[in-house]
Write a structure and sequence with these properties.
alpha/beta, Rossmann fold, two-stranded parallel sheet, 315 residues
């Protein structure tokens, strides 16, 4: 298996075959280059309005008691190799309108699919409902440790994507992946954790596995921090495969463990918890980089996707 996206400066940590340190200078992976000979996928776009959603109708933050309306753009990448009527594997991308993913993923998939390094994957790039952090629509969707967001994708997004563009999306959990950065990465893991019968492949950049859930769930009092503190250690191993990253200068990197808000420590705790339970993982630590650093993403995303799908056989 090739890992061209790691290109320069990939160093294997001692006695850890799946743990890597990468160092600057970071360079764009060759898979980001648009090549004339490579067939180009099609990108469809539509907008979901808050009043159309039963699960996320908007947050009430005004005296009227009415939800604040929002619009959610969605982009759907369909590879050139997709044949109508066939069942297709796919990946759900959180923060789907973010240029870090929206402007790079199609070219990467064009190249990887053409070179047969990943299957012909449909990418469903879903934007959040607005804002960031506790009290925002994005925070509600991504930082909540429950299956609500998964049900939103399953009940409100995927059926529309399939019907609107004539796509047949696989029901096989091995053919369903989910990815994101920051809170979007936490949401990706949450999707697989609560519903491994639906999703089993997770790609995480600077995952927000910290104490950021709002409103609080009294049974999971520290939000996504509970994944590595209690949930993973106390549960049987689930059939989840995860590629995960954190940067040296990630959010809260100078804070202590007691703050429950240090992304570096949180991701290292995730690594330890997953490793102890025997999960299939790959962990990348990026020196001299920041939170969901675009330079790191541009260097590693192609290799991450290849690793994530390397054992997929399809049905």
């Amino acid at each position: 298996m090739r890992f061209a996206a790691f290109a320069l400066a990939v160093f294997l940590l001692p006695q850890a075959q799946n743990e890597f340190v990468i160092k600057p200078p970071y360079k764009d992976a060759p898979e980001l280059t648009i090549k004339q000979a490579v067939p180009k996928g099609t990108i469809h776009e539509f907008v979901m309005k808050s009043e159309e959603s039963k699960l996320y109708p908007g947050i009430v933050q005004n005296p009227s008691g009415r939800p604040i309306p929002y619009e959610r753009p969605v982009a759907v990448y369909v590879p050139a190799q997709y044949k109508p009527g066939t069942v297709a594997p796919f990946i759900v991308v959180q923060d789907g309108a973010n240029p870090k993913y929206r402007n790079t993923l199609p070219a990467i998939l064009d190249n990887l699919i053409y070179e047969k390094r990943v299957p012909p994957i449909i990418a469903v790039m879903v934007q959040h409902g607005g804002g960031d952090g506790p009290g925002s629509e994005r925070g509600l969707e991504y930082d909540t440790v429950s299956d609500r967001y998964t049900m939103f994708i399953e009940q409100e997004v995927l059926p529309r994507v399939a019907s609107q563009y004539g796509l047949t999306l696989t029901k096989d959990p091995e053919g369903r992946a989910t990815m994101g950065g920051s809170s979007g990465a936490a949401a990706a893991f949450t999707m697989a954790w609560f519903h491994p019968e639906l999703y089993r492949r997770v790609l995480s950049y600077s995952g927000t596995f910290v104490n950021q859930e709002n409103p609080r769930n009294p049974e999971i009092s520290r939000g996504a921090w509970e994944y590595h503190a209690t949930l993973i250690p106390n549960a049987p191993r689930k059939p989840i495969r995860i590629w995960m990253h954190v940067s040296e200068n990630d959010n809260g990197s100078t804070r202590d463990d007691a703050s429950l808000h240090n992304w570096v420590l949180a991701n290292q705790h995730m690594l330890a918890a997953l490793k102890a339970k025997g999960y299939t993982y790959r962990f990348v630590y990026a020196e001299g980089a920041g939170h969901t650093d675009p330079a790191v993403i541009n260097q590693t995303l192609a290799g991450a996707l290849e690793w994530l799908w390397q054992d997929y056989r399809g049905k």
